[in-house]
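User: Before I run my own analysis I want an independent prediction to cross-check against. Here's the chain; please return only the structure tokens and, at the end, one sentence I can use as a sanity check.
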Amino acid sequence: MALVRIPAEGRTITAEDDVRRTLARVGIDYERWQPTHEVAEGASAEAVLAAYSGEIDRLKASGGYVTADIIDVSPRTPNLDTMLAKFSREHWHDEDEVRFILRGRGVFHIHPREGPVMAIEVVPGDLIRVPRGTHHWFDLCSERDIRAIRLFQDASGWTPHYTDSGVDSGYQPVCLGPSYIPARG
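Assistant: Structure tokens:
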């Protein structure tokens, strides 16, 4: 389950309903998905897309998405640092950025027009929709491993428009995960 950190406020939000409400305030959609049938760990992209076809079709209908694919990144990915550098600078897109995390972890930093920057750590089962025009950047966690379903409104994919604001340089791509959150009690 995703967790949201708001460094300027010293807050970490971990409860699913609170995460959903916090993200909705800045226009980010968040859901948890379960496959309609079992998906093997190393399943092909086609098998994964088939397992989540109901959810994908629902999103396509509601968001005008025309295509879905799988991104599969690991430490063995050729030119990984070059690829990740495209995402780790503040940018925005002409279309939504929709990701459903199947494996691994990453951090979306969101820089809303109003309010402080927030870091959203996503894990398997998390679906996030960052609306077009939203300033953001993305980093992998230390494992440098992620597999996700991506949906696009334009079949050619999206292009990042960099802000060159430098705000991203003030935030570390720190992934905490549930083991770092103190138990309540």
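Sanity check: Helices lie at 16-24, 45-51, 53-63, 80-87.
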